[in-house]
Amino acid sequence: MASRGEAEQHGQESARTLARYLPALLIVAGVCYDVLTPAAFTAVPFFTAAPLIAAPLSSLRTTVLTGLAALLATYAVHARFAVLPDADAVTEIVTVATVAVLAAGINRIVRIGDQRLASAREVAEAAQRAVLPEPAEWIGGFEIAARYEAAQEGTFIGGDLYAVQDTPYGVRLVVGDVRGKGMGAVAAVAVVIGAFREAAEQEATLEAVAARLERALAREGVRRGGIDAHEGFTTAVLAELRYGDGTLRVVNRGHPPPLLLHGDGEVCPVLAPESALPLGMGDLGAWPDRAAEHVFPSGATLLLYTDGLSEARDAHGRFYDPERRLTGRTATAPGVLLARLAAEVRRHTGGGMTDDMALLAVRRP
Description:
The chain is about 50% helix and about 20% strand. The chain is α+β, with helices and mostly antiparallel strands. Residues about 1-5 have low confidence and may be disordered.
């Protein structure tokens, strides 16, 4: 049975096909209407609608040809009754010709808007590649994949983030979710990732990396002022994979816990030893970060994600539960795992995701 997403895609393709042929169908319908009705009835609404519908959906050439076809059809149906140059006939021909010219102008305006939109999307895509670059497939002996799924189609970047850094202390990772939306959230993402990459190289412990991120967000909040100086925060989970010894260390700052997917299908959440507030909320209390230490066995995969995954709802309001959904599955490559997860969430929500989703998977071969 076809999934809901596949059915929607098929419906969209059918709608596009109908829209492409609708101008020609309207002209044919107008001719048939005029032939089957008395001379007092007019098919001008059909003939004027055809170029107007073609204008936003077709090329300039197709729009102009549709207008000419509508104009010739208008002339032909009146010539059939030999009533030219009747005033009503001339008026209808002029009306169709005017609408055809307007349709050509509308087409040019729409095309210019499309070009500007395409340019804006290219800029947004370049910004995403700059802020959230795809990590290398292999780093420090670990197989890695990352994926960003925007809730709104055509959007490239938002408040979710991920980063991977190869350091003298091991492979270090961060996945986070910045409070808020829009360019303010994007700016905070850039601050967090920039601070993480610098701190990951310089700080000897994962706890110290978290402290650097805290200070960076505090400075950014003061610089931006307003509500961000008091209520801006970022949930984040930081992980460190030590080379060779199979040790995994995790610091969690108010973020959904990562999942450890074992090769035999067992799934275990990587829990923190104690609860901690998100980054950027240090004014509410000071406490030392404590990293949780776990065994990262060969063949296992570490999955880090934002709440766009765990809080995705279906039509009945049920959350997507990644721990339950992934239990019992055999190990796959990180890229394949993330692609399947993204597809499942789209199906679960019926294509109506309400929040962005960042995914990062690391497999120890």
